[in-house]
Amino acid sequence: MLQSWNMVSLPMNVYDGRRSILFPSSSSKAFSYDPSSGYLIRDTLMTGMGYWIKFPSAETTTVSGYPLVSDTIPVQQGWNMIGSITAPIPTSSIIQNPANSIVGRIFGYAGSYQPMTTIDPSRSYWVKCNNPGTLILSSGTTLKPQNQPTTFDPSQDMSTLTIIDAEQRSQTLYLNETARGAQKENAYDLPPLPPEGSFDIRFGSQSMLESVGKKESKEIDLQMRGVRFPVTLSYHSIGPKLTLGESRIALGAQTYVLKDSIGVVRLHLSGSLSIPKSFSLEQNYPNPFNPSTTIRYSLPVESRVQLTIYNLLGQKVATIVNGVQDVGYQSVLWNAGEFASGVYMYRIDAVSASNPEQAYTQIRKMLILK
User: Which of 61, 301, 320, 329 gets the highest tally of CB atoms within 10 A of its CB?
Assistant: First the structure.
């Protein structure tokens, strides 16, 4: 068992199933789950059911009893915590009654929610069902599975966002770009939140997948619980662009570190062909800075762009963009290593390449601090 919360089950028949007898060192009650009522306190563990139990430190626990070679587990519509049997079995061997009851992936918890392909003894698992029924677990069955639960094999066309906290606990989430802006697949829905204090990271939609159309963009929330800061974000993109916060910090070129909690972590996801709705000039980031900062801006049409730096006397000190640029979200890195500390202004002048009357000018302040 890991320190803190674990998903456990009773993998055999025992004389006394009380939590205090089976797990005397545990530091919490046992909690089962009911789709209509949520978490419920249980004093006695039963085969077929899954439970959350907290342990003050990592330990190896031994349970004695008679082997449980098979079990028929009743399930309800929605998420269910199911138990295990004495021997490990692949999730693909679970018999579903009625057929095709399981929706999406089967999840376990080992510091974070992860899709599983094996039901191991003493562990419990989250299973989402589309209707009430039963699941049959058997170590020696000759029955042919009616439908194999979807195993976890992310498509090669998915981008990944990996979040790692100060204790090296991690969660990987997925982002997908589709031609139609496809809705989220049920297969990526995450189970209910674990008990308070547990490590858990997910999108605000309660999924581990967010999708966006190639020409679309949207705001998404990153929900983090039980994390220890600093937290590192690593984004590997093969299509959609992902930026962080109002400053639109681009993720992907390198890891980004959140040094402390900032409340809701707001992300902006845009397709590779997405078009801004209007001109804009973002606040540079970082600010103050030394010696480099990134300036981001948006062009709703192909434009002739000039991005100029001025000192407080209104003197032009640098021109960092001067030319025609394609429609889209743009950024430029400015190295101010040769400039003295102080307040500077940066100004964008953008004029549509096809319609000179469509023009935009904006000025913002920034601070070099050496």
Answer: 329
Quick one: which of 330, 323, 278 has its CA closest to 304? 323
pLDDT tens, 246-279? 777 878 877 899 988 767 799 989 888 788 889 9
Spell out the domains of the chain, with CATH numbers in brackets.
4-138 (no CATH), 158-270 (no CATH), 280-368 (2.60.40.2550)
Pick from 280, 290, 297, 287: which is nearest to 332 by CA? 297
CA separation, residue 84 to residues 126, 288, 300, 335 (Å): 11, 55, 56, 59
Residue with the larger pLDDT of the pair 181 and 315: 315
What integer pLDDT is reported at residue 61 of this predicted model?
Answer: 85
Q: What is the DSSP string of 292-318?
A: EEEEEEEESS-EEEEEEEEETTS-EEE
**Strand duo 209-213 + 170-178: pairing:** parallel
Read off the pTM.
Answer: 0.77
Q: Output the CA angle 285-289-295, nearest 5 degrees.
A: 30
Please state, as a whole number, how many other Cβ atoms lie within 10 Å of the Cβ of residue 56: 11
